[in-house]
Design a protein that fits this description.
Elements lengths: L10 H18 L10 H7 L2 E6 L2 E7 H6 L4 H8 L9
Antiparallel strand pairs: 1-2
């Protein structure tokens, strides 16, 4: 298990660690549980995404589908922090 608080790392060190984790995942065909509020990093690291609100999964699926065709306001809100994603009515 690896726990890294991105707040304590500069951007280049953070990128190196995430790329190392990604390389290990690919090389050894690992399954990882990656938890973050940073949707940009989640998109980079994940094949599938589950978005939770108050302990319940509100959006789940392949990473690109969840990001491009999300169904929940929480997902909208998280994406809007990093991209100019429209907020669903």
């Amino acid at each position: 298990m690896v726990f890294v608080s991105k707040a304590s790392l500069d951007v280049s060190v953070q990128a190196q660690i995430l790329n190392l984790i990604q390389d290990l995942k690919d090389e050894y065909d690992l399954t990882l549980l990656f938890i973050s509020h940073d949707m940009e990093i989640v998109r980079h690291m994940s094949d599938r995404i589950a978005v939770m609100e108050e302990g319940k999964i509100v959006d789940i699926g392949d990473a690109e589908i969840v990001i491009e065709d999300h169904r929940n306001l929480i997902t909208d809100s998280m994406l809007a922090q990093f991209w100019s994603a429209p907020i669903a009515p």
